[in-house]
């Protein structure tokens, strides 16, 4: 059922690879790594309207904070009434609390498809998703700093004699560890930049901010060592783009004091 999505991701990756191969070594790791980076830029370019709406919604949510504080003062410990009042205020102002999740949710199928494609390629395996056997073998053997992009921290990459496998495993673990640490750092910076854009919040919003700020990097730290190097390249590039977009946007404006009613 998901084969068309896998094929679409493989097709875009192949088109970028073929274009880069006109000036770079088709079998080189740089060619395949840059193709993955350009896949990220393609997806983020298509999602730019969604990202802009997300930023507009975040600024609108930040502008509502004085009124939310006033509602909190009025309703006191009546959490049900407060939640209903906040939701009604958000509906009136066109603020969606889920808008910030949309880009990540739309990108998730691409991420999972790339993960699937990279996990199934290996030297000698038959081609699938529009790749012939030769292209599949070439992608499996492509290396980033001597580490196959299809290998994960626990894998040894292309098969060979015992000494070669041991050396490859060391390269894979080194490159994978560096990428995971960079991914965690960039993800944390992107989350901090996003929160500065929104401005100070209180209550459940503040709790959610802290959860995302620390939970997202921690999640990558735990799961990153299970991902192929190519997928780590994809997700690190994606986090870098997110960080850049957050830094380029306007900062949060100081909230006006709530009106006295």
Main traits of this protein?
10 helices, two-stranded antiparallel sheet, elongated, mainly alpha
Strand numbers in spatial order across the main sheet: 1-2
Helix and strand run: HHHHHHHEEHHH
Mean pLDDT: 76
Based on CA atoms alone, the radius of gyration comes out at: 22 Å
Strand content: under 5%
Shape: elongated
Number of continuous helical runs: 10
Largest sheet: 2 strands, antiparallel
How many domains in all?
1
Q: Uncertain segments of ≥5 residues (pLDDT<50)?
A: 156-164, 252-261
Q: Please state the structural category.
A: mainly alpha
Distance between the termini: 57 Å
Q: Would you report the number of β strands?
A: 2
Q: Which bin fits the share of residues in helices?
A: over 70%
Description:
By secondary structure, the chain is mostly helical. The protein has one domain (3-248). The protein is 70% helix and 2% strand. It contains ten helices and two strands, in the order αααααααββααα. Strands 1-2 form a two-stranded antiparallel sheet. Strand 1 and strand 2 (147-148) form a beta hairpin. The longest helix has 37 residues, at 162-198. The radius of gyration is 22 Å and the shape is elongated. The model is unreliable at 156-164 and 252-261 (pLDDT under 50).
Brief overview, please?
This protein has 261 residues and is mainly alpha-helical.
Topology, please?
Blueprint: H1 3-20, H2 29-46, H3 48-63, H4 65-75, H5 79-93, H6 102-120, H7 133-141, E1 143-144, E2 147-148, H8 162-198, H9 203-223, H10 229-248
Antiparallel strand pairs: 1-2
Helix pairs in contact: 1-2, 1-6, 2-10, 4-5, 6-10, 8-9, 8-10
């Amino acid at each position: 059922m998901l084969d068309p999505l896998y094929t679409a991701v493989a097709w875009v990756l192949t088109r970028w690879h073929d274009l880069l191969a006109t000036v770079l070594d088709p079998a080189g790791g740089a060619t395949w790594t840059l193709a993955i980076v350009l896949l990220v830029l393609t997806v983020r370019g298509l999602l730019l309207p969604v990202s802009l709406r997300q930023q507009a919604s975040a600024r609108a949510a930040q502008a509502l904070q004085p009124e939310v504080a006033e509602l909190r003062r009025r309703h006191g410990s009546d959490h049900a009434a407060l939640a209903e009042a906040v939701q009604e205020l958000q509906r009136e102002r066109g603020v969606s609390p889920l808008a910030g999740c949309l880009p990540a949710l739309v990108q998730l199928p691409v991420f999972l498809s790339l993960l699937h494609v990279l996990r199934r390629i290996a030297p000698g395996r038959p081609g699938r998703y529009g790749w012939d056997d030769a292209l599949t073998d070439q992608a499996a053997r492509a290396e980033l700093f001597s580490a196959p992009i299809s290998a994960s921290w626990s894998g040894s990459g292309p098969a060979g004699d015992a000494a070669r496998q041991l050396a490859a495993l060391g390269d894979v673990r080194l490159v994978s560890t560096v990428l995971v640490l960079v991914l965690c750092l960039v993800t944390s910076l992107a989350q901090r930049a996003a929160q500065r854009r929104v401005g100070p919040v209180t209550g459940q919003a503040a709790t959610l901010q802290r959860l995302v700020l620390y939970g997202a990097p921690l999640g990558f730290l735990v799961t990153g060592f299970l991902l192929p190097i190519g997928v780590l390249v994809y997700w690190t590039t994606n986090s870098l783009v997110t960080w850049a977009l957050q830094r380029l946007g306007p900062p949060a404006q100081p909230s006006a004091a709530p009106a006295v009613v």
